[in-house]
Amino acid sequence: MRCMSEIDWSHLDGRLLQLLVAVLETGSVTAAATRLGTTQSAVSHLLDKLRAITGDRLFVKQGRGIAPTAHARALLEPARDMLGRMQRFSQGPGFDPAAWRGEITVAANDFQRDLLLPALAARLREAAPLVRLRIMDSGAPDAGLLRSNACLLAISPRPPDATDILQKRLFSDEYVVFYDAAMRSPPGDARAYLEAGHATVAYAPGQGLDLDQQLQGRGLERRFAVRVPGFAALAAFVSGTPLLATAPSLLRRTALVSLAWAALPVEFPPLAMYMIWHARHQSDPAHAWLRGQLERVVAREMGQARPSVPSQQGTPQQACGAVADLEGAVADGRADAGA
């Protein structure tokens, strides 16, 4: 039996590369074992083999955890690249989704998750039955999420601004006002809307909806009574109260189906939703197939009949005029509660 010191680079394989990436990305032998579906002892054994091949300790103890060496950090991107090449090599010139094995991770928040991903999961079960779909929260996705192997795709209205991140617009929606019709009527104009109490979504501290960023740019702001980490939680806080919730209109089909809704009485551009991925996946036939499946899901979902936004607040021109008048009042110092 050969000793570990006799192991050379020719013993490097995909399992060892997956192990290295998993430990580097999770920062933990335990978490890496969970991701790979193996035991901690197996991970430790393979790490010893990888240390013998690279001639580096790779990870050292730091408190109760481990820390990568500089050499290990430098190996991360080459390891990811080799894994991608090995996957493409195994697939050959043609791609057969029925033979695709592995786990696909898609990052999405609750709005786009509940709207699109059940249908994507159904497509995968039919066309790629050996693939497992894993869904993770995207929050406000950054480039690092897509540069890592944490996910293959993200679906978000906020694509990261980076040269190695690609995006494609999937659909557009509009914000509407949700409320409990048993407790109140919809706000009649922009002033009533802004003076009402609101439940809103904040995926990270200090990070609200793009709607609020634009309102603040006009010197206006909503009055928040509740902040929740996702759209799915809004119904529980609006039901039985006079609170308003501003959210994408398509949520009336999923998380906010129990609430009444009306047009937003402030001017705001459409909300665009994007499919986002890293440039290294652009030519991967499996990834291209996955993107195509998501686009087909979107076409089907968006093709369903959508009622027009109700007009209790008047025409769009009237709503815009109300906002303009209120902005002028703010500029003149007249937008107090009794104005």
Secondary-structure blueprint:
Elements: H1 14-26, H2 29-36, H3 40-54, E1 59-62, E2 65-68, H4 70-91, E3 102-108, H5 110-127, E4 131-136, H6 143-147, E5 153-156, E6 165-173, E7 175-179, H7 190-195, E8 197-201, H8 210-217, E9 223-228, H9 234-238, E10 244-248, E11 260-263, E12 271-278, H10 285-303, H11 316-331
Parallel strand pairs: 3-4, 3-5, 8-9, 8-10
Antiparallel strand pairs: 1-2, 5-12, 6-12, 7-10, 7-11
Helix pairs in contact: 1-2, 1-4, 2-3, 5-10
Protein architecture, described:
It is built from 11 helices and 12 strands. A hairpin with a 2-residue loop joins strand 1 and strand 2. Helix 2 packs across helix 3. It has 339 residues and is α/β, with parallel strands linked by helices. The protein is elongated and about 75 Å long. The N terminus and C terminus are likely disordered. It has a 5-stranded mixed beta sheet with strand order 4-3-5-12-6. It has a 5-stranded mixed beta sheet with strand order 9-8-10-7-11.
Q: Choose one word for the global shape.
A: elongated
- The largest beta-sheet arranges its strands as 4-3-5-12-6
Helix and strand sequence: HHHEEHEHEHEEEHEHEHEEEHH
- Quaternary form: single chain
Task: Provide mean pLDDT, rounded.
Answer: 83
Structural classification = alpha/beta
Terminus-to-terminus distance:
88 Å
Tally of helical segments: 11
Helix content: 25-40%
Tell me the fraction of residues in β-strands, as a range: 15-25%
Radius of gyration: 25 Å
Total number of β-strand segments? 12
Q: How would you sum up the major sheet?
A: 5 strands, mixed
Low confidence ranges: 1-5, 305-339
